[in-house]
Design brief:
Helix content: 10-25%
Distance between the termini: 22 Å
Shape: globular
Strand content: over 45%
Strand order of the largest sheet: 2-3-4-1-5-8-7-6
Number of helices: 3
Order of helices and strands: EHEEEEHEEEH
Radius of gyration: 15 Å
CATH class: Alpha Beta
Number of strands: 8
Mean pLDDT: 91
Largest sheet: 8 strands, mixed
CATH architecture: Roll
Length: 126
């Protein structure tokens, strides 16, 4: 089941410029930074904006919403059973040898990417 919006992500081809724009010029607080791999900023009301250099390398890259799931595998199967296109199957992201989250990408009826995201249990305690 979807529990909340995890983040909204913007593809980027220039992480340094994007960090300067969102952090320096707009004054958003950087909440997570994996260098050139991924970066997150928090809006004043606590929403997360992510900078995604991986999708930024695709020629048709679009911003996307990421919805938090409490059971990503079940949600993906349910969407697949309903006829949704699964553009990228569930995969795990790791940092320093530790899983930080699972993700998958589906496509809505108008062709927009929607990421499902499941945060690792150990991160829920932070």
């Amino acid at each position: 089941m979807i529990t909340k919006v995890a983040f909204v992500a913007y593809p980027t081809r220039n992480m340094d410029a994007m960090k300067e724009f969102y952090g320096g010029h707009l004054g958003l607080e950087q909440s997570l930074d994996f260098g050139d791999m991924w970066s997150e900023f928090v809006t004043p009301e606590g929403k997360t904006l992510a900078l995604d250099p991986h999708s930024g390398q695709m020629p048709d890259a679009k911003p996307y919403v990421s919805l938090e799931s409490d059971d990503i595998e079940a949600d993906i199967e349910s969407l697949r059973d309903a006829g949704a296109i699964v553009a990228k199957e569930v995969w795990a992201n790791e940092h320093d040898g530790r899983e930080v989250c699972k993700m998958a990408i589906v496509v809505d009826p108008d062709g927009n990417p929607v990421m499902l995201h499941q945060i690792a249990e150990w991160r829920k305690e932070e």
